[in-house]
Amino acid sequence: MLLTMGSTAEFVTRVGGRIRARRKERGWSVQQLADASSVSRRMLTDIELGQANPSLTTVDRIAHALDADFAALALPDEPAVEGTLVWQDPDGSRAVLLGATTEQRAELWRWVLAPGGRYDAEPDRAGAQEIHHVISGRLTLELAAGRQVLAAGQSAVIASDQEYAYVNETAESVAFMRVVTGA
């Protein structure tokens, strides 16, 4: 899924500026960061200029190449009370980064998936995990080992160093909290 403009324009601009600043601090060219992150030079240039809609995974790959984490690039200096809208879909699905630690690389997210909504994730670093807690609705986690369905009030821990997806197969929205560790 891609980040969308509109309510996330400030986010895209902030991420681009921070990527450029960290790249320059290292003395790297755009090509060196492209090689280290497996993101094209053209895409990196557009991201740095705030003119691209990078996926969450792309931002994460760039962060790792810069020895940072997603939150270091994404969170504002003064976090908003309601969190930082990072991803949204026209169907009403959205992901809000509520906060993060810097030392243990843990992130707290609030997600909503609209009826029929889906988010396909790419693997995180080896050993990374996610904790999911469903607030309302029913969340299906599609994992390499199979599907796991969580109802309201249920929680699960998954390894996120694999391809996986969040899916809402119901006619009502699903709201869940997500904690990412080690990504």
Explain briefly what this protein structure is.
With 183 residues, the chain is of the alpha+beta class.
Tell me what the structure shows.
The protein is α+β, with helices and mostly antiparallel strands and 183 residues long. It has 2 domains: 6-74, lambda repressor-like DNA-binding domains (434 Repressor (Amino-terminal Domain), Orthogonal Bundle); 89-181, Jelly Rolls (Sandwich). The protein has helices spanning 9-26, 30-37, 41-48, 56-65, 70-74, and strands spanning 84-88, 94-100, 106-113, 118-121, 129-136, 138-143, 146-151, 155-159, 164-167, 174-181. The strands form 2 sheets. A 6-stranded antiparallel β-sheet has the order 1-2-3-10-5-8. The chain has a 4-stranded antiparallel β-sheet with strand order 4-9-6-7, with no helix packed on it. It is globular. The protein starts with 8 loop residues before the first helix and ends with a strand.
Strand percent estimate: 25-35%
Runs in which pLDDT lies below 50 for 5 or more consecutive residues are 1-7
Biggest sheet architecture: 6 strands, antiparallel
CATH superfamily caption of the largest domain: Jelly Rolls
Give the topology string: H per helix, E per strand: HHHHHEEEEEEEEEE
CATH topology assignment of the largest domain: Jelly Rolls
First-last Cα distance? 18 Å
Count of alpha and pi helical runs: 5
